[in-house]
Amino acid sequence: MFRRIPNAEHQCIGHLISIVLTIQSFYLSVYDNKPLPSLTWIKSSNNTHGYIRATIDFSVGPKPISAIGYRARTLNEKRRDFRLFIADPSNPVKPMPNPVFWFTTSLVTEAQTNTTIVCSLAIEYPQEGWEGFFIQVNFPGPNGSVLELTTETQIVPDTYPTDDCHNESCAGTLV
């Protein structure tokens, strides 16, 4: 099980209630011996698009309440960084805004049966910088709780702003 929280920073300020409610749903499901949701995915890309295909199997576990995509674009081609705050290069202990926001986007339902839903999200490569995206699926839990699960984040293009380095040649700097 995996959960990504859009528009959060490392301390998850403003998201603690959401996190606690997801943990509560998971805990109550385990405690009550309820079947957990099944969410699997594949990530791929070609020369123009990135793609996530999520399979939700509710043959044993709960049927999803909803599914939504999230996407965000970096501010430039220098930072492959989707955090809301970063370290200030002139004072690394001081946070600095990095206004990269995650927005919801529609999914494509590729297939649906009585026990399975397959949905996907394809994102075109940006003209500059990087675009990240993932799928979130919400499931009903015990006592009216909701269990929010996500896929991993796909980032396109699959490139980095610096060359790979090894050993002594890796002298880090904040950008």
Structure description:
The chain has 175 residues and is mainly β. It has a single domain, classed as Sandwich (Immunoglobulin-like), CATH 2.60.40. The protein has 1 helix and 11 strands. The strands form 3 sheets. Strands 3, 6, 9, 10 and 11 form a 5-stranded antiparallel β-sheet that branches. The longest helix has 16 residues. The model has no long low-confidence stretch (mean pLDDT 91).
Q: For the terminal residues, how far apart are their CA atoms? A: 33 Å
Derived structural class: mainly beta
Radius of gyration: 19 Å
CATH topology: Immunoglobulin-like
Total of DSSP H or I helical runs spanning 4+ residues: 1
Kindly state the mean pLDDT as a whole number?
A: 91
Number of strands: 11
Beta-strand proportion: 35-45%
Count of folded domains: 1
Sequence stretches where pLDDT stays below 50 over 5 or more residues: none
Largest sheet: 5 strands, antiparallel
H-E string = HEEEEEEEEEEE
CATH first level? Mainly Beta
CATH architecture: Sandwich
From the spread of the alpha carbons, the general shape counts as globular
| Percentage of residues in helical conformation | under 10%
Can you give me a brief rundown of this structure?
This protein has 175 residues and is mainly β. Helix content is 9%, strand content 41%.
Topology record:
Blueprint: H1 16-31, E1 38-45, E2 49-57, E3 66-73, E4 85-88, E5 91-97, E6 103-105, E7 108-112, E8 116-124, E9 131-140, E10 146-150, E11 154-156
Antiparallel strand pairs: 1-2, 2-8, 3-6, 3-9, 4-5, 7-8, 9-10, 9-11
